Amino acid sequence: MSELSLRTSAIPVTDPEAGLRLTEIFYSLQGEALTSGLPTIFVRLTGCPLRCVYCDTEYAFSGGERQSLETIMATIASFPCKRICLTGGEPLAQPNAIELMTRLLDEGYEISLETAGALTVENVPPAVSKVMDLKTPSSGEVDKNLWSNLDYLTQHDQIKFVIMNRADYEWAKEKLLEHQLDKLVGTVWFSPMFNVADDVTVAANKEMGSPEVPVLARELAEWMLADALPVRFQLQLHKIIWADAKGK
Ligand code: SF4
Question: What would the CATH number be for the domain defined by 1-119?
């Protein structure tokens, strides 16, 4: 399938009364992107049409609980914070996510939206900071990238590549230059696949004398230095602090 062939129609208007299927709401430090390290309320919606090989939130693929937007807003209001990360799963798989974002903005919340980049971001309110993935070949979902989404990104938004190996790095570099992504959005992130639960990775890291930092992270850092790319390196802070603990 070509990069441009998987287009989806605009998100349909649905009944706000139907609410949203929700996996969890929790309060923690943001572990990624520009608000990394800041206290944040995470709203994790259920469901995702993708199946990335490195997915660390498979528990959000199904289940959850359908809740009204009013109930979700009340839970959010119980935390001492006005910063929200809407995540999943894929939040945009549920059309009412747009309505939730609109209501939260009206209440003065600052919102970042983590999206896989496979569904249109056209209807996301402009005040929301989109943190959009571009799926690399090793993710197994590169064909799902909806390239027309680039038309809706601004300096207020961010693009993230999760890099699994040198081939992914080369692909990401090619897309960065081809689409001039660093000029399109405020920040482009290159992040090494970071699976701290992987015994092989942990053993390899111990061998290198630093079990907390994956070998791939060091390699990626060196590739980026050698090419002096206009992108930023990131490790997922929450995985360093809390490993794969759910709800953190
Ligand atoms: S898009 Fe995100 S939630 Fe969906 S499978 Fe990929 S990593 Fe998991």
Answer: 3.20.20.70
**What is the DSSP secondary-structure string of 4-48?**
TT---PPPPP--GGG-EEEEEEEEEE--SSTTTTSEEEEEEES--
From the alpha carbon of 141, which atom of ligand 1 is closest? Answer: 6
How is the chain split into domains, by residue range? 1-119, 134-234
What is the mean pLDDT for each group of 10 consecutive residues in the chain (248 residues)? 33 70 95 90 97 93 96 96 97 97 98 98 98 96 98 98 94 98 97 66 55 72 95 85 63
Find out whether the beta carbon of 43 lies less than 6 Å from any atom of ligand 1: no
- Which atom of ligand 1 has the smallest separation from the CA of 48? 4
**Residue range 133-186, pLDDT digits in tens:** 999 999 999 999 999 999 999 999 999 999 999 999 999 999 999 999 999 999
Question: pTM of the entire structure?
Answer: 0.87
Ligand 1 centroid to residue 49 C-alpha, Å: 8
- How buried is 58 (Cβ within 10 angstroms: 0-12 exposed, 13-18 middle, 19+ buried)? exposed
Ligand 1 and 57: CB distance under 6 A: yes
User: What is the pLDDT at residue 31?
Assistant: 87
**Ligand 1 contact via 64 beta carbon (within 6 Å):** no
| Pair 117, 91: CB distance under 8 Å | no
Most informative mutation of 6, 50, 113 for ligand 1 (most atoms within 8 A of CB) = 50
